[in-house]
Amino acid sequence: MPDLAVQTKQVNNTEQNSWWKNAVGYQIYPRSFKDSNHDGIGDLNGIRQKLPYLKELGIDFIWINPIYASPNVDNGYDISDYQAIHEDFGTMDDFQDLLKEAHELGLKIIMDLVINHTSDQHPWFLESKKSLDNPYRDYYHWVDATKEQLPNNWQSFFGGSTWTYDEKTKQAYFHVFAKEQPDLNWKNPHVRHEIYQMIRWWLDLGIDGFRIDAISHIQKEPWDFQITDNQWAPFMNVAGTESYLKELKAIFNEYNVMTVGEASGVPHQEAGDWTGDNGYFNMIFELEHCERIGEIGKQKGSIPHLKHSLNQWQTSLSDNGWNALYLENHDTPRSVSVYGDDSPEAAKALATVLLLLKGTPFIYQGQEVGMTNYPFRSIDEINAADTIHFYQTLLTQGKMTAEALAIAVNWSRDHSRTPFQWEDALHGGFSTTEPWLKVNENYRMINAAQKDLESSSIFHHYQALIRLRKQNDALINGNFQLLFPEHPTIFSYTRTTETESWLILVQLDREKTTISFPDSWDHSDWEEVLTTASKKSVEQHMILSDYEAHVYRKVTR
Ligand code: TEU
Ligand code: CA
Question: 3-class SS at 387?
Answer without folding.
Answer: helix
